[in-house]
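$ run holo --ligand "GCB" --emit tokens
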Amino acid sequence: MKAAKLSRVLVLFIAVNSYSFEQNLIINVDNRSTVSLNGKWQVIIDPYETGYYTYRYDINKNGYFRNEKARSKTDLVEYDFDKSETLNVPGDWNSQQEKLLFYEGTIWYKKSFDRIKKPNKRAFVYFGAANYHSIAYLNGKKLGEHEGGFTPFNFEITQLVQEKDNFLVVKVDNKRRSDGVPTLNTDWWNYGGLTRRVMLIEVPDTFIKDYFIQLKPAQERGLAEGGKGSLKTVAGWIQLDGKQAEQTITVEIPDANIGQTFNTDANGYAEFEFDAELKLWSPDNPTLYDVTIKSRTDSVTDSIGFRSIETEGSKILLNGKPIFLRGISIHEQAPRSNSRAWSKEHSEKLLGWAKEMDCNFVRLAHYPHNEYMPRTADRTGMLVWSEIPVYWTIQWENEGTLENALNQLTEMITRDKNRASVILWSMANETPVSDARNKFLSQLVERARNLDPTRLITAAMEKNYEGNNKPVINDPFGEYVDVLGCNEYIGWYEGLPDRCVLYTWKTTYDKPVIMSEFGGGALCGFHSDKHTRWTEEYQEYLYERQIEMLEKIPFLAGTSPWILTDFMSPRRPLPGIQDYWNRKGLISDKGEKKKAFYTMQRYYAKLKEGKK
Ligand code: GCB
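-- output --
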């Protein structure tokens, strides 16, 4: 696997060249030896960053990270974590205190802990995500920084951690930035804080840090005559971290009678390939195998499904057979809550609702969701589109912005590349066409293909017009992707629902198209005639008309309407209707299903029966 090797080189390259981006991500943290640091953390709200800058706006060497205390009655210390209020971790701060609902700035978090030291073990602190920029310190020493609010990162603390009275301080800043990813403008709540779990991970001196185990990608299997090549070859690589780089590794899949041995090289890296008789993973049969990787010093088990995903003309093929993606878009909004989702229960509820609608596919918008989502999708049988927040008007010509986007992409793929559910990596959403944007996005595609040659690449794009009622999908970025996503709001931002049926769609690409967004707003419980905006009847009518239109698009390979549930957005102030919620959910913020939910459910039931 040449591509995998290249990716490893790329990852190492970033690690040495970029101070602020931590690339030594440990994967599959659920199956490691860990200690949770979740729970109450002491916090200091610091809108002026007094704990970081001096009054001359230099970085303060005596910042809050030192966790100082006044030790005598004459001492002047103007903060005290231990007398400060607390916030729950994981959790956004906005939904935990009314005064923080609209807060955008810095909050300092502190957690104290003891740790029993064990010989020959290394320790890491792992953050599931922190939005947006964070700096972590242990016992007064800086561990590192991280930018990007939706991907995990970890820092090694082996040398710094003590048996007693450790204090971990994290400065989290969710100020929006014009050069950020996303940039200043989004249609979702800018939830700040340690939004996902935090834990200590304990590993042996030399440990299995990362691995990639999937069916060999289509292009490498080759097209066997009359078919799509063998679906029996497993291929991948393993990366050790530590001094004992050269080791013998075993990959075991007991339920498939597999036990294969390989040797890692002087960099702790091994590629492998072997044949196996496997029950293929699919939404109808989400078979997962326990895969155990053993080295002399470490052992880690994962639950992995095996399936292929490829395209042929305008069709998407799962395990060599055409599949229509009956999808729904989902934001990481916790069910029946004004907070960001983070737990296994949240993911089970959200994906459970999608199942109830007869979906086999979800678009996880507009950023990588917490790891429970793809894990739950793996278990319950749901195909996944996963994307990075390259949204709307990113600074296309800014090298730092590109580096940041590449890094978020790398972290997303690193974490989820062994999830059978994930079939599509999406590079961007509704970005305005320009040469600079095409160049930026094509570099993301190159990185994604290098890191993961097994999945399809997509992006949610916009349509153009070739004449009256003649939309055409011809975004030049379409050249680079395998599957075209198209967002359209006919009947909501563009005319009234009846307009849909006049449209004849065209594409300039012989590639599958997913209608990655369509929809309209409705306040649950607001009823009137179907021409009254914001009613459930209007939304239902819009969906009916959309479906009529979609059924006539020959190259359509899937749909993921906007959106499963209402979600919070500062761009949606209309009193009595929105109250800072985007109301395009098919399910309300209270968990009630709107009429259009059932419209989609009926459509998908029909498609499923027809096995389109
Ligand atoms: C879009 C965006 C999505 C918005 C949605 C809307 O096109 O991709 O992020 O939330 O429209 O509701 O307007």
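-- notes --
The two ends are 34 Å apart (CA to CA).
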